[in-house]
Amino acid sequence: MHLDNSAHNPLEDIDKILVDETAIKKRIQELGAQITQTYQGRELAVIAIINGAIIFVADLIRELGLPIQLDCVRISSYRDEVIPIQAPEIIDKIRLDLKGLDVLVIDDILDSGSTLFRVVEILKAMNPASLKTCVLLDKNTTRTVDFEADFVGFQIPDEFVVGYGLDFAERYRQLPCIGVLRPELQNPPEWA
Ligand code: IMP
Ligand code: MG
Question: Can you give the pTM of this predicted structure?
C-alpha cells in the first residue's frame, strides 16, 4: 500500500483514466469561449471553491477574454473518506464584496449537489447582479438536492475520481488527467 508518499509515481495508483490531459485541455478552451461569449462586455467575479477547483480555475481563467476578479471560498464536507460525512460548511469566507457583480462560482465536481447548493445560497445573500455555476465534472446520477450547473465540462459515471485538482485525502490533485483510484486504495484499513 502506497500511503507514505514514498518514491512512486502516483499514476500507478490509478485503475483507469476517465478523461485524459488532451481532452481536458480542449474542453477548457471550449468552456472558456462559451463563458466569454456569455459575459461579453462585462467584468466577471470568479469564485473558486478550494482546494478542488484550483487547477481547473487556473487553466479556465486563462481562456477567458474578459476582465475578472478572483476570490476563493473554502468548504468542508469530506474528511479522508470517499463518503461525505457531514453537511457542507464554509470554513474560509470570501473577501470580495459581491454586491452588484456578475458572479461565476467554480467547483471541480458536482456530485450530490449539496456543496454548490449551499455555496450558491450563501453567495446569493450577498446580492450579486447575477450568479452562475461551472463545474469540470458532473456525476448527474448522484444528486440528493435539485441542482444543476450552468457550465459543465464532462458528464462522468458514478465512480470516485482523482486528479486535475480532485483528491483522495489531499493526494493526487497534481495528476494531469482524471482517473479512478484502484479500489483497494479507496478505503485503506488504517483510516477505517
Ligand atoms: P457534492 O456536495 O456531493 O456535490 O460534492 C462536491 C464535492 O465533493 C466536490 O467539491 C469534491 O471536493 C467532492 N467530491 C465529490 N465527488 C468526488 C470524487 O469522485 N472525487 C473527489 N472528490 C469528490
Ligand atoms: Mg475534495
Answer: 0.90
